[in-house]
Amino acid sequence: MFEARLVSSSTFKKILDAVKDLLNEASFDCSESGIQLQAMDNSHVSLVSLMLRSDGFDKYRCDRSLTMGMNLANMAKIFKCANNDDTVTIKAQDDADTVTFMFEAKKQEKISDYEMKLMNLDQEHLGIPETDFSCVIRMPSPEFARICRDLSQFGESIVISCTKEGVKFSTGGDIGTANVKIAQTNNFDKEEESVTIEMQEPVTLTFACQYLNSFTKATPLAPQVQLSMSDNVPLVVEYQIPDLGHLRFYLAPKIED
Amino acid sequence: HSKQKSILDYFKSD
Protein backbone atom coordinates (compact mmCIF):
# COMPACT_ATOMS: atom_id res chain seq x y z
CA MET A 1 0.00 0.00 0.00
CA PHE A 2 1.21 3.45 -0.91
CA GLU A 3 -0.38 6.62 0.42
CA ALA A 4 0.97 10.16 0.44
CA ARG A 5 -1.01 13.16 1.63
CA LEU A 6 -0.09 16.78 1.10
CA VAL A 7 -2.15 19.67 2.46
CA SER A 8 -1.65 21.88 -0.56
CA SER A 9 -2.11 20.42 -4.02
CA SER A 10 -0.64 23.61 -5.49
CA THR A 11 2.87 22.23 -4.91
CA PHE A 12 2.15 19.35 -7.29
CA LYS A 13 0.56 21.73 -9.79
CA LYS A 14 3.75 23.82 -9.75
CA ILE A 15 5.98 20.77 -10.15
CA LEU A 16 3.97 19.54 -13.13
CA ASP A 17 4.05 23.00 -14.70
CA ALA A 18 7.81 23.05 -14.21
CA VAL A 19 8.54 19.75 -15.97
CA LYS A 20 5.84 19.35 -18.59
CA ASP A 21 7.81 21.19 -21.30
CA LEU A 22 10.66 18.73 -20.92
CA LEU A 23 8.95 15.45 -20.12
CA ASN A 24 5.93 13.68 -21.59
CA GLU A 25 6.04 10.87 -19.10
CA ALA A 26 8.10 9.86 -16.10
CA SER A 27 8.46 7.20 -13.45
CA PHE A 28 7.80 8.16 -9.86
CA ASP A 29 9.87 5.93 -7.59
CA CYS A 30 8.20 5.67 -4.22
CA SER A 31 10.01 4.29 -1.20
CA GLU A 32 10.11 4.77 2.55
CA SER A 33 12.34 7.81 2.11
CA GLY A 34 10.01 9.59 -0.29
CA ILE A 35 9.09 10.10 -3.93
CA GLN A 36 11.83 10.46 -6.54
CA LEU A 37 11.73 11.11 -10.23
CA GLN A 38 14.62 11.13 -12.65
CA ALA A 39 14.12 11.55 -16.37
CA MET A 40 15.86 12.94 -19.42
CA ASP A 41 14.13 15.13 -21.95
CA ASN A 42 13.49 13.58 -25.37
CA SER A 43 16.69 14.91 -26.90
CA HIS A 44 18.83 13.72 -23.95
CA VAL A 45 20.30 17.17 -23.41
CA SER A 46 18.86 17.75 -19.95
CA LEU A 47 17.90 15.69 -16.92
CA VAL A 48 15.14 16.38 -14.41
CA SER A 49 15.59 15.14 -10.86
CA LEU A 50 12.84 15.55 -8.28
CA MET A 51 13.04 14.54 -4.64
CA LEU A 52 10.10 14.81 -2.26
CA ARG A 53 11.04 13.60 1.22
CA SER A 54 8.52 11.44 3.07
CA ASP A 55 8.81 13.64 6.19
CA GLY A 56 7.61 16.62 4.15
CA PHE A 57 4.22 15.00 3.60
CA ASP A 58 1.38 15.33 6.08
CA LYS A 59 0.89 11.59 5.90
CA TYR A 60 3.15 9.11 4.18
CA ARG A 61 3.01 5.36 4.01
CA CYS A 62 4.95 3.12 1.65
CA ASP A 63 4.92 -0.55 2.64
CA ARG A 64 6.81 -1.69 -0.43
CA SER A 65 8.87 0.32 -2.91
CA LEU A 66 7.02 0.87 -6.13
CA THR A 67 7.56 2.63 -9.43
CA MET A 68 4.66 4.42 -11.00
CA GLY A 69 4.98 5.39 -14.65
CA MET A 70 2.76 8.34 -15.39
CA ASN A 71 1.80 10.41 -18.38
CA LEU A 72 2.47 13.94 -17.12
CA ALA A 73 -0.03 15.66 -19.39
CA ASN A 74 -2.78 13.41 -18.02
CA MET A 75 -1.56 13.99 -14.49
CA ALA A 76 -1.70 17.73 -15.15
CA LYS A 77 -5.31 17.35 -16.38
CA ILE A 78 -6.20 15.70 -13.08
CA PHE A 79 -4.48 18.36 -10.96
CA LYS A 80 -6.33 21.03 -12.95
CA CYS A 81 -9.46 19.63 -11.30
CA ALA A 82 -8.07 20.48 -7.86
CA ASN A 83 -8.18 23.87 -6.18
CA ASN A 84 -4.83 25.18 -4.98
CA ASP A 85 -5.73 24.81 -1.33
CA ASP A 86 -7.25 21.34 -1.68
CA THR A 87 -5.52 18.55 0.17
CA VAL A 88 -4.25 15.85 -2.17
CA THR A 89 -3.84 12.18 -1.33
CA ILE A 90 -2.04 9.89 -3.77
CA LYS A 91 -2.88 6.22 -3.32
CA ALA A 92 -1.87 2.97 -4.98
CA GLN A 93 -2.08 -0.68 -4.03
CA ASP A 94 1.05 -2.84 -4.27
CA ASP A 95 1.46 -4.09 -7.85
CA ALA A 96 -1.42 -1.91 -8.98
CA ASP A 97 -1.81 -0.69 -12.55
CA THR A 98 -3.64 2.46 -11.49
CA VAL A 99 -3.05 5.35 -9.12
CA THR A 100 -5.75 7.39 -7.39
CA PHE A 101 -5.61 11.10 -6.64
CA MET A 102 -8.09 12.30 -4.05
CA PHE A 103 -8.74 16.00 -3.55
CA GLU A 104 -10.43 17.31 -0.42
CA ALA A 105 -11.64 20.86 0.03
CA LYS A 106 -10.58 22.58 3.26
CA LYS A 107 -13.95 22.23 4.98
CA GLN A 108 -14.53 18.75 3.57
CA GLU A 109 -17.50 20.08 1.60
CA LYS A 110 -16.18 18.54 -1.61
CA ILE A 111 -14.21 15.35 -2.11
CA SER A 112 -13.26 14.10 -5.55
CA ASP A 113 -11.13 11.25 -6.73
CA TYR A 114 -9.50 10.52 -10.05
CA GLU A 115 -8.04 7.19 -11.00
CA MET A 116 -5.34 7.14 -13.66
CA LYS A 117 -3.85 4.20 -15.52
CA LEU A 118 -0.16 3.68 -14.90
CA MET A 119 2.33 3.09 -17.68
CA ASN A 120 5.22 0.67 -17.97
CA LEU A 121 8.11 2.94 -18.72
CA ASP A 122 11.47 1.48 -19.50
CA GLN A 123 13.45 4.44 -18.27
CA GLU A 124 17.14 4.16 -17.67
CA HIS A 125 18.44 5.53 -14.41
CA LEU A 126 21.61 7.58 -14.64
CA GLY A 127 24.28 7.81 -12.00
CA ILE A 128 25.07 11.43 -11.18
CA PRO A 129 28.60 11.75 -9.81
CA GLU A 130 29.18 13.85 -6.68
CA THR A 131 30.88 17.05 -7.79
CA ASP A 132 32.53 19.87 -5.90
CA PHE A 133 31.46 22.74 -8.08
CA SER A 134 33.82 25.57 -8.97
CA CYS A 135 31.02 28.13 -8.72
CA VAL A 136 27.75 28.09 -6.83
CA ILE A 137 25.46 31.07 -7.43
CA ARG A 138 22.31 31.75 -5.46
CA MET A 139 20.00 34.44 -6.74
CA PRO A 140 16.30 35.38 -6.76
CA SER A 141 14.51 32.91 -9.03
CA PRO A 142 12.37 35.59 -10.77
CA GLU A 143 15.57 37.49 -11.64
CA PHE A 144 17.10 34.41 -13.25
CA ALA A 145 13.86 33.82 -15.20
CA ARG A 146 13.87 37.44 -16.34
CA ILE A 147 17.47 37.29 -17.57
CA CYS A 148 16.88 34.06 -19.51
CA ARG A 149 13.74 35.47 -21.08
CA ASP A 150 15.36 38.80 -21.96
CA LEU A 151 18.52 37.35 -23.46
CA SER A 152 16.76 34.64 -25.46
CA GLN A 153 15.35 37.40 -27.67
CA PHE A 154 18.84 37.99 -29.03
CA GLY A 155 20.50 34.60 -29.32
CA GLU A 156 20.04 30.88 -29.02
CA SER A 157 22.72 30.43 -26.38
CA ILE A 158 23.59 32.13 -23.13
CA VAL A 159 27.16 32.29 -21.89
CA ILE A 160 27.28 32.23 -18.09
CA SER A 161 30.55 33.53 -16.75
CA CYS A 162 31.23 33.50 -13.02
CA THR A 163 34.12 35.33 -11.41
CA LYS A 164 34.78 36.82 -7.97
CA GLU A 165 33.31 40.10 -9.19
CA GLY A 166 29.97 38.58 -10.15
CA VAL A 167 28.06 36.63 -12.74
CA LYS A 168 27.75 37.72 -16.34
CA PHE A 169 25.06 36.39 -18.67
CA SER A 170 25.78 37.13 -22.35
CA THR A 171 24.36 36.34 -25.72
CA GLY A 172 24.70 37.50 -29.28
CA GLY A 173 22.94 37.13 -32.59
CA ASP A 174 21.87 38.94 -35.75
CA ILE A 175 20.70 42.04 -33.85
CA GLY A 176 23.84 42.43 -31.78
CA THR A 177 24.91 41.43 -28.31
CA ALA A 178 23.43 41.54 -24.82
CA ASN A 179 25.12 41.36 -21.41
CA VAL A 180 23.63 41.27 -17.93
CA LYS A 181 25.93 41.48 -14.93
CA ILE A 182 24.81 40.51 -11.45
CA ALA A 183 26.89 41.40 -8.42
CA GLN A 184 26.88 39.78 -5.02
CA THR A 185 24.61 41.63 -2.61
CA ASN A 186 25.27 42.67 0.95
CA ASN A 187 21.60 42.58 1.76
CA PHE A 188 21.61 40.16 4.66
CA ASP A 189 18.15 40.94 6.02
CA LYS A 190 16.32 40.10 2.79
CA GLU A 191 17.53 36.59 2.07
CA GLU A 192 15.10 36.03 -0.78
CA GLU A 193 16.46 39.01 -2.71
CA SER A 194 20.11 38.29 -2.12
CA VAL A 195 22.73 37.17 -4.63
CA THR A 196 25.55 35.05 -3.25
CA ILE A 197 28.51 33.63 -5.13
CA GLU A 198 30.78 30.89 -3.81
CA MET A 199 33.71 30.64 -6.19
CA GLN A 200 36.72 28.31 -6.11
CA GLU A 201 37.68 28.85 -9.75
CA PRO A 202 36.19 31.15 -12.37
CA VAL A 203 33.99 29.28 -14.88
CA THR A 204 32.56 30.21 -18.27
CA LEU A 205 30.08 27.87 -19.93
CA THR A 206 27.57 28.13 -22.80
CA PHE A 207 24.00 26.82 -22.60
CA ALA A 208 20.96 26.63 -24.87
CA CYS A 209 18.38 29.32 -24.05
CA GLN A 210 15.50 27.01 -24.83
CA TYR A 211 16.38 24.71 -21.93
CA LEU A 212 17.19 27.48 -19.45
CA ASN A 213 13.81 29.02 -20.22
CA SER A 214 12.09 25.68 -19.64
CA PHE A 215 13.78 25.31 -16.25
CA THR A 216 12.53 28.72 -15.17
CA LYS A 217 8.96 27.35 -15.30
CA ALA A 218 9.88 26.13 -11.80
CA THR A 219 10.16 29.72 -10.53
CA PRO A 220 6.86 29.62 -8.55
CA LEU A 221 8.28 26.75 -6.47
CA ALA A 222 11.03 28.74 -4.77
CA PRO A 223 12.09 32.36 -4.20
CA GLN A 224 15.74 31.50 -4.85
CA VAL A 225 17.47 29.43 -7.50
CA GLN A 226 20.92 27.88 -7.20
CA LEU A 227 23.19 27.54 -10.24
CA SER A 228 26.17 25.20 -9.83
CA MET A 229 28.90 25.15 -12.46
CA SER A 230 32.24 23.51 -13.12
CA ASP A 231 34.22 23.32 -16.33
CA ASN A 232 33.10 20.53 -18.65
CA VAL A 233 30.23 19.23 -16.56
CA PRO A 234 26.48 19.89 -16.76
CA LEU A 235 25.01 22.97 -15.10
CA VAL A 236 22.73 22.25 -12.14
CA VAL A 237 19.74 24.55 -11.71
CA GLU A 238 18.15 23.82 -8.36
CA TYR A 239 14.89 24.95 -6.80
CA GLN A 240 14.36 24.06 -3.13
CA ILE A 241 10.76 23.15 -2.43
CA PRO A 242 10.23 24.46 1.13
CA ASP A 243 10.04 21.70 3.76
CA LEU A 244 9.54 19.03 1.09
CA GLY A 245 12.53 18.52 -1.19
CA HIS A 246 14.01 19.87 -4.39
CA LEU A 247 13.66 20.01 -8.14
CA ARG A 248 16.96 19.95 -10.05
CA PHE A 249 17.64 20.36 -13.72
CA TYR A 250 20.94 19.27 -15.25
CA LEU A 251 21.93 20.75 -18.59
CA ALA A 252 24.81 19.65 -20.78
CA PRO A 253 26.87 22.63 -21.96
CA LYS A 254 27.46 23.59 -25.57
CA ILE A 255 31.06 23.23 -26.65
CA GLU A 256 33.06 24.77 -29.45
CA ASP A 257 33.04 22.65 -32.59
CA HIS B 1 30.01 27.54 -33.80
CA SER B 2 29.13 25.48 -30.77
CA LYS B 3 27.85 21.95 -30.52
CA GLN B 4 25.22 20.75 -28.04
CA LYS B 5 26.50 17.90 -25.89
CA SER B 6 24.23 15.14 -24.57
CA ILE B 7 23.69 14.54 -20.87
CA LEU B 8 24.71 10.93 -21.61
CA ASP B 9 28.23 12.17 -22.31
CA TYR B 10 28.46 12.96 -18.57
CA PHE B 11 26.11 10.65 -16.69
CA LYS B 12 26.18 6.92 -17.30
CA SER B 13 23.45 4.34 -16.78
CA ASP B 14 23.43 2.81 -13.31
What features would you describe in this structure?
The complex is a heterodimer of chains A (257) and B (14). Chain A is mainly β. Helices cover 14% and strands 46% of the residues of chain A. Chain A contains four helices and 20 strands. Chain A has helices at 10-19, 72-80, 141-151, 209-215; strands at residues 2-6, 25-31, 34-40, 46-53, 59-62, 66-71, 87-92, 98-104, 111-117, 126-127, 135-140, 157-163, 166-172, 177-182, 196-199, 203-208, 224-229, 235-241, 245-251, 254-256. Chain A starts with a strand and ends with a strand. Chain B starts with a strand and ends with a strand. With 14 residues, chain B is mainly beta. Helices cover 0% and strands 36% of the residues of chain B. Chain B has strands at residues 2-4, 12-13. The relative contact order of chain B is 0.27. At the A-B interface, strand 10 and strand 20 of A face strand 1 and strand 2 of B. Strand 20 of chain A pairs antiparallel with strand 1 of chain B.
What's the average pLDDT of chain A? 95
If helices are DSSP runs of H or I spanning 4 or more residues, what is the number of helices of chain A?
4
Biggest sheet strand line-up of chain A = 6-2-3-4-19-18-17-11-15
Gap between N and C termini of chain A, in Å? 52 Å
The major sheet of chain B is characterized as: none
Number of strands of chain A: 20
Biggest sheet record of chain A: 9 strands, antiparallel
Order of helices and strands of chain B: EE
Per DSSP, what share of the residues of chain A sits in E-state strands of 2 or more residues? over 45%
